[in-house]
Amino acid sequence: MSSSDDAELKLGEGGGTETLTGITNFLQDDGSAGKVLSASFIGLVVSPFVAFADVVQAIGTFFAKPFSGAGEAISALLAGLFEAPGDLLDAGADITETALRTALGETLAGIIAFPLTVGLVVLGLYIVTLYLREDETGDTLPGVPVDIPFVGVEEEDTVDE
Fold it and tell me: What residue spans define the domains of the chain?
């Protein structure tokens, strides 16, 4: 085995100084200049293809990021809509179980905790549906369908489609 087989060409991260230092060390360790030239030529031939692949990957990432971000946002929305009431019901069930296990009449609040949490979730959903119904309200007090003439804003009747 010759000494040129023992020398190893290390170019580091590919920076200019690291590359020149690696080539210099390789040649000082009795490395073959032909190996350096062939590696340089291969690098020149391959580098445009690597750059093209990087550009294609960047374009793909540019178009894919909004979709992955939207997926994460929808996931967070659904988790907030469905996991929070579920967690509330789970906590109410745990409290009810604890109250019933310790003593059947320990505290009234412990025994009715689960029905109370179910009622709170249903009430929350009912409030959301009331908001979404968009009932017409009056111009005097918010939420009260009373119109006093010449007070407030006069609105035309709208037909819900």
Answer: 11-133
